[in-house]
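Hello Y.,

Per our agreement to keep a running log of every chain we model this quarter, I'm adding this entry. I've kept the format consistent with earlier entries: sequence first, then predicted structure.
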Amino acid sequence: MSKGIILKVWGDNACFTRPEMKVERVSYDVITPSAARGIVEAIHWKPAIRWIIDRIHVLNPICFENIRRNEVADMISQDKVKQAMNRGNLSELIYHVDDGKNRQQRAAVILKNVCYVIEAHFELTEHAEASDNEGKHIDMFRRRARNGQCFYQPYLGTREFTANFELIEDRTAIPRCHEQLNGEKDLGWMLWDIDFKNGMTPHFFRASMTNGIITIPSQKEIIL
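Predicted structure for the entry above:
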């Protein structure tokens, strides 16, 4: 696949939050396709291309950990930001994190010692120009990933769980999944991605892992 890339990502912790959990964060068993896309886009993205996740290899055994952490109760509203911009004065645009009403301690179920291999390819979008050819963008991604460059630090679900990454240049170099992951495992309904063009509509699919590998369906195949 000339337009394809293979990327290894890993980290000490991860949290790919299930959307059905309203207050406490509970992670999916594995990385979601949308989170994988976010990692790839952190390395190289342009309006001319759209990244599509093909397969996810889960290399390490799935291990959860319960933690408690401080979070804020809400965010500064857009209305207050607009008002401050219209006034030309940001002095009143203040959020006191240490206020007892704003800071809350919540439980979270996160993943420990995660490691994945992401296989992905891209398609040219309607924003592509004559200079936006496939070879140009794939070479740019591989060069940036090879040198450890990124537009912003990729993360594993939430920003405090940063992701390390490494380009895999040859399919034969993909590490084998842990033997504990052998066989079939039904992961249940999982978030595929969010359609930002149509009212941020979430799309889900029935995830299944075979010997540590999850094949991601195309958009035409998913169940809305």
